[in-house]
Amino acid sequence: MPQPEVAGSPADSFHLPLQRIVLTGFMGAGKSTVGRLLALDLNWPFRDVDDEIEAAAGLSIAEIFRTHGEPHFRELEHQTIRQLTGQDRLVLGLGGGAIEDPRTRDLLLSTPGTHLVHLDASLETILVRCHGTEADRPVLADRPNLEARYQRRLPLYRLAHLSIPVDTLTPEDVAQTLRQKLSL
Ligand code: S3P
Protein backbone atom coordinates (compact mmCIF):
# COMPACT_ATOMS: atom_id res chain seq x y z
CA MET A 1 0.00 0.00 0.00
CA PRO A 2 1.47 3.48 -0.83
CA GLN A 3 2.70 5.31 2.25
CA PRO A 4 1.51 8.89 2.93
CA GLU A 5 4.22 11.51 2.32
CA VAL A 6 5.92 12.59 5.54
CA ALA A 7 6.22 16.38 5.94
CA GLY A 8 9.90 17.32 5.72
CA SER A 9 10.78 14.36 3.50
CA PRO A 10 12.89 15.18 0.38
CA ALA A 11 9.78 15.07 -1.85
CA ASP A 12 8.13 17.65 0.39
CA SER A 13 10.91 20.19 -0.14
CA PHE A 14 9.91 20.67 -3.79
CA HIS A 15 6.60 22.12 -2.61
CA LEU A 16 8.09 24.74 -0.32
CA PRO A 17 6.65 28.24 -0.84
CA LEU A 18 8.80 30.91 -2.44
CA GLN A 19 11.42 32.10 0.05
CA ARG A 20 14.05 33.85 -2.06
CA ILE A 21 13.96 35.90 -5.23
CA VAL A 22 17.44 36.15 -6.70
CA LEU A 23 18.10 38.66 -9.47
CA THR A 24 20.77 37.97 -12.06
CA GLY A 25 21.79 39.70 -15.30
CA PHE A 26 24.62 41.79 -16.74
CA MET A 27 25.85 45.02 -15.10
CA GLY A 28 23.30 47.80 -15.45
CA ALA A 29 20.33 45.45 -15.99
CA GLY A 30 18.71 46.94 -12.86
CA LYS A 31 19.23 44.16 -10.33
CA SER A 32 19.78 46.45 -7.33
CA THR A 33 17.14 49.03 -8.26
CA VAL A 34 14.47 46.45 -9.07
CA GLY A 35 15.49 44.32 -6.09
CA ARG A 36 15.00 47.24 -3.70
CA LEU A 37 11.57 48.08 -5.16
CA LEU A 38 10.44 44.49 -5.01
CA ALA A 39 11.69 44.02 -1.45
CA LEU A 40 9.81 47.14 -0.39
CA ASP A 41 6.60 45.83 -1.98
CA LEU A 42 6.96 42.42 -0.37
CA ASN A 43 8.18 43.79 2.94
CA TRP A 44 11.19 41.50 2.70
CA PRO A 45 14.80 42.64 3.16
CA PHE A 46 16.98 43.28 0.09
CA ARG A 47 20.63 42.20 0.13
CA ASP A 48 23.15 43.07 -2.56
CA VAL A 49 25.99 40.56 -2.86
CA ASP A 50 28.55 43.20 -3.92
CA ASP A 51 27.68 45.36 -0.90
CA GLU A 52 28.03 42.37 1.41
CA ILE A 53 31.45 41.52 -0.03
CA GLU A 54 32.66 45.12 0.26
CA ALA A 55 31.46 45.39 3.86
CA ALA A 56 33.10 42.11 4.89
CA ALA A 57 36.39 42.89 3.12
CA GLY A 58 36.52 46.56 4.06
CA LEU A 59 37.49 47.20 0.42
CA SER A 60 35.61 48.28 -2.69
CA ILE A 61 35.07 45.74 -5.48
CA ALA A 62 37.61 47.63 -7.63
CA GLU A 63 40.17 47.45 -4.79
CA ILE A 64 39.57 43.71 -4.33
CA PHE A 65 40.17 43.14 -8.07
CA ARG A 66 43.30 45.32 -7.98
CA THR A 67 44.82 43.94 -4.78
CA HIS A 68 43.77 40.28 -4.81
CA GLY A 69 42.73 39.58 -8.41
CA GLU A 70 39.47 38.46 -9.99
CA PRO A 71 39.67 34.75 -8.95
CA HIS A 72 39.81 35.82 -5.29
CA PHE A 73 36.77 38.08 -5.81
CA ARG A 74 34.89 35.20 -7.47
CA GLU A 75 35.53 32.93 -4.50
CA LEU A 76 34.28 35.59 -2.05
CA GLU A 77 31.26 36.03 -4.32
CA HIS A 78 30.37 32.34 -4.29
CA GLN A 79 30.82 32.00 -0.52
CA THR A 80 28.67 35.10 0.12
CA ILE A 81 25.87 33.79 -2.12
CA ARG A 82 26.02 30.37 -0.45
CA GLN A 83 25.65 32.00 2.95
CA LEU A 84 22.76 34.26 1.89
CA THR A 85 20.91 31.40 0.22
CA GLY A 86 20.38 30.02 3.73
CA GLN A 87 18.09 32.95 4.56
CA ASP A 88 14.31 32.97 4.07
CA ARG A 89 12.06 35.77 2.81
CA LEU A 90 14.82 37.58 0.98
CA VAL A 91 15.35 39.48 -2.26
CA LEU A 92 18.95 39.07 -3.37
CA GLY A 93 20.82 40.99 -6.07
CA LEU A 94 23.82 39.19 -7.58
CA GLY A 95 26.82 40.75 -9.29
CA GLY A 96 26.76 40.28 -13.07
CA GLY A 97 29.48 37.62 -13.14
CA ALA A 98 28.22 35.34 -10.36
CA ILE A 99 26.31 33.19 -12.86
CA GLU A 100 29.60 31.98 -14.39
CA ASP A 101 30.45 29.86 -11.34
CA PRO A 102 28.81 26.44 -11.88
CA ARG A 103 28.57 25.92 -8.10
CA THR A 104 26.58 29.15 -7.76
CA ARG A 105 24.33 28.23 -10.70
CA ASP A 106 23.60 24.79 -9.29
CA LEU A 107 22.89 26.23 -5.87
CA LEU A 108 20.47 28.86 -7.15
CA LEU A 109 18.70 26.57 -9.59
CA SER A 110 18.22 23.69 -7.19
CA THR A 111 17.70 25.17 -3.70
CA PRO A 112 14.01 24.67 -2.83
CA GLY A 113 12.10 27.93 -2.40
CA THR A 114 14.62 29.87 -4.53
CA HIS A 115 13.54 31.59 -7.73
CA LEU A 116 16.30 32.82 -10.01
CA VAL A 117 15.19 35.71 -12.23
CA HIS A 118 17.17 37.08 -15.17
CA LEU A 119 16.84 40.76 -16.02
CA ASP A 120 17.63 40.58 -19.71
CA ALA A 121 19.18 43.81 -21.08
CA SER A 122 20.87 44.23 -24.47
CA LEU A 123 24.54 45.22 -24.57
CA GLU A 124 23.53 48.55 -26.15
CA THR A 125 21.29 49.36 -23.17
CA ILE A 126 24.00 48.30 -20.75
CA LEU A 127 26.62 50.55 -22.35
CA VAL A 128 24.29 53.54 -22.11
CA ARG A 129 23.25 52.84 -18.51
CA CYS A 130 26.75 52.08 -17.21
CA HIS A 131 28.52 54.93 -18.99
CA GLY A 132 30.83 56.69 -16.52
CA THR A 133 30.93 53.89 -13.91
CA GLU A 134 34.13 52.25 -15.23
CA ALA A 135 36.13 53.22 -12.11
CA ASP A 136 33.75 51.19 -9.92
CA ARG A 137 33.29 48.32 -12.37
CA PRO A 138 36.56 46.63 -13.37
CA VAL A 139 34.76 44.28 -15.76
CA LEU A 140 33.22 47.24 -17.59
CA ALA A 141 36.62 48.94 -17.76
CA ASP A 142 38.00 45.81 -19.50
CA ARG A 143 36.40 46.93 -22.77
CA PRO A 144 38.23 44.55 -25.17
CA ASN A 145 36.66 41.56 -23.38
CA LEU A 146 33.28 43.06 -22.57
CA GLU A 147 31.30 41.78 -25.53
CA ALA A 148 32.79 38.28 -25.23
CA ARG A 149 31.84 38.21 -21.55
CA TYR A 150 28.33 39.32 -22.39
CA GLN A 151 27.91 36.64 -25.09
CA ARG A 152 29.41 33.95 -22.86
CA ARG A 153 27.07 34.78 -19.99
CA LEU A 154 23.84 35.20 -21.93
CA PRO A 155 23.00 31.47 -22.24
CA LEU A 156 23.87 31.01 -18.56
CA TYR A 157 21.55 33.83 -17.44
CA ARG A 158 18.83 32.29 -19.59
CA LEU A 159 18.95 29.10 -17.52
CA ALA A 160 17.15 31.13 -14.83
CA HIS A 161 13.60 30.13 -13.82
CA LEU A 162 12.35 33.34 -15.41
CA SER A 163 13.79 35.88 -17.88
CA ILE A 164 12.35 39.38 -18.27
CA PRO A 165 13.41 41.59 -21.21
CA VAL A 166 14.01 44.96 -19.56
CA ASP A 167 15.26 47.32 -22.30
CA THR A 168 11.99 49.22 -22.65
CA LEU A 169 10.75 48.89 -19.04
CA THR A 170 11.22 51.19 -16.06
CA PRO A 171 12.41 49.53 -12.81
CA GLU A 172 8.85 49.92 -11.47
CA ASP A 173 7.49 48.10 -14.54
CA VAL A 174 10.02 45.31 -14.09
CA ALA A 175 9.13 44.88 -10.41
CA GLN A 176 5.43 44.78 -11.27
CA THR A 177 5.97 42.29 -14.12
CA LEU A 178 7.92 40.09 -11.80
CA ARG A 179 5.19 40.13 -9.17
CA GLN A 180 2.59 39.24 -11.79
CA LYS A 181 4.68 36.37 -13.18
CA LEU A 182 5.37 34.99 -9.73
CA SER A 183 1.81 35.62 -8.49
CA LEU A 184 3.07 37.69 -5.57
C1 S3P B 1 30.78 42.21 -12.23
C2 S3P B 1 29.66 42.96 -11.95
C3 S3P B 1 29.58 43.82 -10.75
C4 S3P B 1 30.52 43.34 -9.65
C5 S3P B 1 31.91 43.16 -10.18
C6 S3P B 1 31.98 42.18 -11.34
C7 S3P B 1 30.78 41.37 -13.45
O1 S3P B 1 28.25 43.82 -10.24
O2 S3P B 1 30.09 42.13 -9.09
O3 S3P B 1 32.39 44.44 -10.58
O4 S3P B 1 31.63 40.46 -13.54
O5 S3P B 1 29.91 41.58 -14.32
P1 S3P B 1 26.99 44.55 -10.98
O6 S3P B 1 26.45 43.60 -11.99
O7 S3P B 1 26.04 44.77 -9.85
O8 S3P B 1 27.51 45.81 -11.57
SSE blueprint:
Elements: H1 10-13, E1 20-24, H2 31-42, E2 46-48, H3 49-57, H4 61-68, H5 70-84, E3 90-93, H6 102-110, E4 114-120, H7 123-130, H8 138-141, H9 146-157, E5 162-165, H10 171-181
Helix pairs in contact: 2-10, 3-5, 4-5
Shikimate-3-phosphate binds at residues 27, 31, 50, 61, 95-97, 137-139.
Question: What this model shows, in words?
Answer:
The chain has 184 residues and is an alpha/beta fold. The chain has a single domain, classed as Rossmann fold (3-Layer(aba) Sandwich). It is built from ten helices and five strands; from the N terminus they run αβαβαααβαβαααβα. Helix 2 crosses helix 10 and helix 3 packs across helix 5 (70-84). The protein is globular and about 40 Å long. Bound molecules: shikimate-3-phosphate. Shikimate-3-phosphate (S3P) binds at residues 27, 31, 50, 61, 95-97, 137-139.
Number of strands: 5
CATH topology: Rossmann fold
**Poorly predicted segments:** 1-14
Question: In terms of structural class, how would the helical and strand content be classed?
Answer: alpha/beta
Strand order of the largest sheet: 2-3-1-4-5
CATH architecture: 3-Layer(aba) Sandwich
How many alpha or pi helices? Answer: 10
Using the CA coordinates, give the radius of gyration: 17 Å
Largest sheet: 5 strands, parallel
Oligomer: single chain
SSE order in H/E notation? HEHEHHHEHEHHHEH
CATH homologous superfamily caption:
P-loop containing nucleotide triphosphate hydrolases
